[in-house]
Design goal:
Acyl_CoA_acyltransferase; N-acetyltransferase domain-containing protein; GNAT_dom; globular; acyltransferase activity, transferring groups other than amino-acyl groups; 263 residues; 7 helices; Aminopeptidase; alpha+beta
Length: 263
């Protein structure tokens, strides 16, 4: 079902079903497990570990939370409970905090129907968008990540190298180059069997922000997704990227907050 006139409720239901309830592993060696009313991913020490979906009543919520803590800590893994604003019970965030989870900054789930987005954005003069296909390109993406977000990028380097080697049809990575300098980078995860592609990691080094590079990287990835038959783009948008995405035609649907548990 392609929704040309956006029905927010129907689109959110489709997102929940295809990307959360029926989640697929996001890389080689990764498991998606369904236990009771919880769907979780176990990615191991180098991957993403966490709860993707839970259909919980008030009476069962605390026991389900305790069960996930026991499972992941038993494996020696930190993990994340990815909570969305419409998840139930309504006080699930409070229950997670009471159980020892730490909330990270809230973001906005935004979805764009590719056919209706404004995708004519080009990079500024002197900047070119280069596909990432080898370890050297991955190093450039990791370098941008560290400079743009001030965070360690070892996990990103490992994950991207693994995906490009073992499952290249499910990931697109690009870097924006100003001469020989990497100034922005981003990736897109293509989820087989769904209508969704996810935009991740869009970051620009401070000196190059405000020049339209982020918009150009969104447009570049959207064209790739459309060429491969995907209908929608999904983004967990920060407060900085949300206004840009809205101008491109993305729709905010709900909030998303990572609740992190340290083993």
């Amino acid at each position: 079902m392609l929704m040309t006139h956006v029905d927010h409720s129907a689109l959110l239901t489709l997102f929940d079903r295809e990307l959360r309830e029926e989640a697929r592993p996001d890389g080689p060696g990764v498991r998606v497990e369904r236990t009771g009313d919880v769907v979780r991913q176990v990615g191991g020490p180098q991957g993403w570990n966490g709860v993707l979906w839970a259909a919980l009543g008030e009476a069962a919520a605390d026991a389900a939370i305790a069960g996930q803590i026991a499972h992941f800590t038993g494996l020696g893994l930190d993990f994340e409970w990815k909570l969305y604003g419409h998840d139930r019970p309504a006080d699930l965030g409070q229950r997670l905090r009471a159980a020892g989870f730490r909330p990270e900054p809230e973001e906005t789930l935004m979805i764009g129907e590719i056919a209706t987005l404004s995708l004519d954005a080009e990079p500024p003069e002197g900047v070119r968008i280069v596909p990432v296909t080898d370890p050297r390109g991955v190093d450039l993406v990791a370098d941008v990540h560290e400079k743009a977000f001030g965070a360690d990028s070892a996990w990103l380097r490992d994950q991207l190298l693994t995906r490009l080697s073992a499952d290249p049809d499910t990931v697109v990575a690009v870097v924006a180059m100003a001469g020989d300098e990497p100034v922005s980078a981003a990736r897109m995860e293509l989820v087989p069997g769904t209508r969704f592609a996810g935009l991740w990691g869009g970051g620009t080094v401070a000196a190059w922000r405000g020049r339209g590079i982020y918009r150009a990287l969104v447009a570049h990835r959207a064209h790739h997704a459309a060429a491969r038959g995907y209908h929608y783009l999904q983004v967990d948008a920060s407060s900085q990227s949300r206004p840009i995405l809205e101008r491109l035609g993305f729709t905010p649907l709900t909030t998303t907050t990572p609740y992190v548990y340290t083993a």
